[in-house]
Write a structure and sequence with these properties.
alpha+beta, five-stranded parallel β-sheet, five-stranded mixed barrel
């Protein structure tokens, strides 16, 4: 038996089409109750009459039937094992999928767990529970009617059973009670369960409010209709809100129609926006525009009720001098179009007592959150996950609920987990389905493999990598083939041989997108059997590779290029230092030494040519952490040491990427995966230009070549680190380099600004980057080594893949930095040091100091709380003066450094000025005896050390 469903759908060109579908009605769908004689017992195995729910609101054991909104809002509660024997109606299941894919996936995970006894009843196809829509009936009212009908049917179908409908919809509850259906809200249900304290903490409360009446401290949001009307008429603008990390009362929104982000300030300006929200902004008239503040403001509030400190800081914000040249488009948030709230990691603040606690997120861009908990004493020792539920006008902070505890505060495992969760890094164990795709051991190269590949095992190939690197994905060779002509090869691990399109391991690698490097650990993109064994180009072992081979003259001019899949046997896996020593030791004349020397000579020519073309040499503070191999505690922090061989390897990786980009674009003009570095807008360089001007340098930013030349000229012999800091500042002005399919942009947009090349891609690191695997597949088709497949040539799917790759790469970079920051803080615990530093930024109330030795940035506050400042700020010249002492950007200083752990969540360095000496402000230098560890054990003689690179240890970051 079947009926028909009609619906109207709009097509791509704007026409409305009527669709008619057959809807089958059946009488053989099981109810899922094991004791039911009328239904198929085999299909009834999900529910269990032995473990029934007990709630003191009801005098009987029962099965639970859930409304849609309960699932959407209370998934944290439903995931707890105490909630069992739940019937999910198919009507509800479909609506959850339509409204929230993440919740839908979490619901499926519970449904697949046999111990939870969740069962889907297909009510919309059962002859006794199917209800057609009434004319003019709202879809929500129809769904509620279907839910009540199915619950009534269960009560009649299984007279001995008991069923409770849980819904937070007051109208639905009222109508259910009229039909004699036992019903209640999820909050009432949870409160009347035994041992319910943890469950109550996990309840999402959309109507969460203060215990006492409070006045509104935020302006109201406009209605949805008013927002849509304002945006349509151009009165309002839509964009993504980004909170400032330095000033909790400041944020920005990038909107169409303005070249610069719209500046938001104060409570009225931010108006309950949370980083990532899609908001509607009203832009002020130009005469009301202001400049971004030059002060650093932290939220030091300790309770929701106290807003005095916020009012004081808002006043300080208003007192900031406005320079005409620095004003930005300014506005205020008038409504929230879409919340982007997610789960946040952090800790409970301070020693507040009672039911309500303030949660401090690890991410400084997220405001503190008010939660209700009955286990505060325990949770104060833990890192937590909390999610936001609502933000009423009368509350200083948003309201949320506890999700779960991650582990003890300060534990390295816990902190790594926090880093991974905060940066959305997939880090679960590889599934059995993924592992089943791996080759069986022992793995050998067959005669058939040898026929399909070029055998290069006789060539003297070697790899050069950081110490301790196990995922070796590139190797090099250089040999003289005739007088004045060299053969140079870059050989890349052939990961695509093992990861075939459409398999589980391919889907997992595409989702992860990149290997993530934390201090002391690595989250692999592919299982270790591939990343550290079968694909890793280890010395002395036969391996599959994809080779890019050039014929060059002695001036590094490319005479010809060829690509092919190969079999190689690396003669040596060297570190950068070992390779450098080999090059420098003139007594070594073996084939590997000569190969490295020739590679180094060619690399110098290639680099010189790149720089002459306008490629930028930028700088960043990359450090490595020296770890105790037994305790995995940091023993020392130091800047990475760079050798000529670092540059040598980088030059050939860049050249290979450029050569491959040219080849795949030539053959696949619409779907080649390329990498572009957009030219930054001129306004991005304002901090760099301003800093250069104050130092007497004219930094030209109209093109990359002029910027590179300007940076080369910006040198002062008396301050040897000045040029490095300028280059660091230039790095921060850049936009993110991104992947894209060639068919989605015009050719002039393919340009890579940092490298100053018209075409670029990633080919050289397929073990740790999924983009490289796609490039290998394209190149393999060109070489005749493999066949194409639909998704590879689908421009839309390639574009969606690139979006994920760009997001995952950005998050991996941030996660690596966060891991370094945590371990650096761990190293400084209990230490008191005087360190040499440089002023990176001059602010109105602070100096931001860079300490090159540790790659650290910290803030020296010049205005202490409730004290009169000794300093006079000159905004025009970006200086701070105290008597005869004047501080400029990049001036050297000596500071006292000590870790302040009073705020465990946001530990920061307490910084005091040592030199130059300012009476009443500076402190005297420490003696050698004073510079000692207070509570940390010194390094013992003979103790093992382990060098762990803080970030990805590979060659090119372009």
């Amino acid at each position: 038996m079947f009926t028909t469903k009609c619906f109207i759908k709009k097509n791509k060109i704007g026409n409305f089409l009527k669709h008619v579908r057959e809807h089958y009605i059946r009488d053989d769908i099981s109810c899922g109750i094991p004791s039911c004689d009328d239904c198929n017992a085999e299909a009834s195995s999900h529910l269990n009459e032995v473990h029934l729910n007990k709630c003191s609101l009801f005098k009987f054991e029962h099965f639970i039937i859930l409304d849609t909104n309960v699932i959407l809002d209370q998934m944290d509660v439903l995931e707890e094992p105490i909630i069992c024997n739940v019937i999910i109606l198919h009507t509800v299941y479909k609506e959850v999928k339509h409204r929230s894919l993440p919740i839908y996936k979490r619901l499926n995970a519970v449904l697949e767990n046999p111990s939870r006894h969740f069962y889907i009843f297909v009510n919309d196809h059962h002859k006794d529970t199917f209800l057609p829509e009434d004319k003019n009936e709202l879809i929500n009212d129809h769904n509620d009617r279907c839910i009540r009908k199915a619950t009534s049917w269960y009560m009649g179908h299984v007279p001995k059973g008991h069923f409770v409908l849980i819904t937070d919809d007051a109208k639905n509850r009222q109508l259910a009670l009229a039909d004699n259906i036992p019903t209640c809200t999820i909050t009432d249900y949870v409160k009347h369960l035994e041992n319910n304290s943890i469950l109550q903490d996990k309840l999402s409360r959309k109507d969460f409010h203060s215990e006492k009446e409070a006045k509104d401290i935020f302006p109201p949001h406009l209605s949805t209709a008013a927002l849509l009307k304002g945006i349509k008429e151009g009165v309002l603008h839509q964009g993504t809100f980004r909170a400032s990390k330095d000033n909790f009362l400041e944020g920005f929104v990038s909107v169409d129609g303005f070249t610069e982000p719209v500046l938001l300030q104060g409570r009225d300006g931010l108006n309950r926006s949370v980083d990532g929200d899609i908001v509607a902004v009203e832009v002020f008239k130009m005469e009301n525009w202001v400049s971004p503040s030059e002060i650093v403001l932290e939220d030091e509030g300790v309770s929701e009720e106290s807003i005095e400190d916020v009012e004081q800081k808002e006043q300080a914000l208003k007192n900031t001098t406005v320079q005409e040249a620095e004003i930005k488009p300014t506005g205020r948030v008038v409504g929230i179009i879409r919340r982007k709230w997610k789960q946040y990691c952090g800790i409970i603040q301070g020693n507040s007592e009672g039911l309500y606690q303030i949660f401090v997120p690890a991410n400084r861009s997220i405001p503190k959150v008010r939660i209700e908990t009955r286990q505060a004493e325990f949770l104060k020792t833990q890192k937590l996950i909390v999610t936001i539920d609502s933000w009423p006008r009368s509350s200083r902070y948003p309201h949320g609920h506890f999700v779960r505890a991650l582990g003890r505060i300060g534990s390295q495992d816990t902190e790594n987990e926090v880093v991974l969760l905060e940066h959305d890094v997939p880090h679960s164990q590889f599934s059995e389905e993924v592992l089943s795709c791996l080759p069986k051991l022992p793995w050998i190269i067959t005669e058939e493999d040898e026929k399909r590949r070029v055998d290069l095992r006789s060539i003297d190939i070697c790899s050069v990598d950081p110490p301790g690197c196990t995922d070796i994905d590139d190797a090099l060779h250089c040999r003289l083939i005739e007088e004045g002509k060299l053969e140079v090869g870059v050989h890349i691990a052939d990961v695509s041989h093992f990861i075939r399109p459409g398999t589980a391991i391919d889907s997992e690698a595409a989702s992860r997108a990149t290997t993530v490097y934390l201090v002391g650990t690595r989250i692999d993109m592919v299982p270790g059997l591939l990343s550290s064994n079968l694909c890793s180009l280890r010395g002395g072992e036969d391996r599959f590779a994809f080779s890019c081979i050039w014929e060059m003259d002695l001036q590094a001019n490319i005479l010809s290029t060829r690509f092919h899949k190969s079999i190689i046997k690396s003669k040596s896996a060297m570190t950068y230092e070992e390779a450098q020593l080999t090059i420098d030791d003139q007594t070594k004349t073996d084939a590997i030494a000569e190969s490295l020397r020739n590679l180094n000579k060619l690399a110098k020519i290639l680099k010189k040519r790149r720089l002459e073309n306008g490629a930028l040499v930028l700088a960043s503070t990359e450090v490595k952490i020296l770890m105790d191999s037994e305790t995995m505690e940091p023993l020392d922090v130091e800047l990475k040491k760079m050798y000529q061989t670092n540059s040598m390897v980088e030059e050939f990786m860049l050249l290979a990427n450029i050569s491959v980009a040219q080849k795949i674009l030539q053959e696949f003009p619409d779907c080649a995966m390329l990498r572009r570095h957009p030219t930054p807008p001129a306004s991005n360089f304002d901090p760099l230009v301003k800093a250069g001007r104050h130092l007497g340098f004219d930094i030209q930013v109209d093109c990359g070549r002029n910027l590179a030349d300007s940076l080369d000229r910006a040198v002062k012999p008396e301050n040897p680190y000045l040029n490095t800091m300028l280059r660091m500042l230039a790095t921060r002005c850049m936009l993110q380099a991104v992947y894209f399919p060639s068919g989605t942009l015009q050719k002039e947009d393919f340009y890579h600004y940092g490298l100053a090349v018209p075409l670029y891609t990633h080919f050289t690191s397929p073990i740790r980057r999924y983009a490289d695997i796609i490039v290998h597949r394209l190149l393999a088709v060109i070489c005749g080594s493999d066949s194409t497949y639909p998704d590879l040539l689908d421009k839309q799917k390639s574009s969606e893949l690139c979006q994920n790759l760009n997001y995952r790469n950005r998050m991996a970079q941030y996660a690596g930095r966060a891991s370094v920051a945590f371990n650096t803080h761990l190293f400084f615990k209990g230490k008191l040091n005087d360190e040499e530093g440089y002023i990176l930024y001059v602010r109105k109330n602070a100096l931001q100091i860079l300490i090159p030795k540790y790659g650290l940035e910290c803030t020296l506050y010049l205005v202490k709380k409730n004290e009169t400042t000794l300093f006079e700020y000159d905004e025009e010249h970006q200086t701070q003066r105290a008597g005869d002492v004047v501080f400029h950007t990049f001036d050297p200083v000596t500071i006292r450094l000590q870790l302040d752990s009073s705020n465990i969540q946001h530990e920061k360095f307490s910084v005091l000025l040592v030199q130059p000496a300012i009476p009443g402000f500076s402190v005297p230098a420490l003696s050698k005896d004073d510079e000692q560890v207070n509570d940390a054990e010194p390094v013992k003689k003979g103790k093992k050390r382990k060098n762990i690179a803080a970030k990805s240890p590979k060659k090119s970051k372009s």
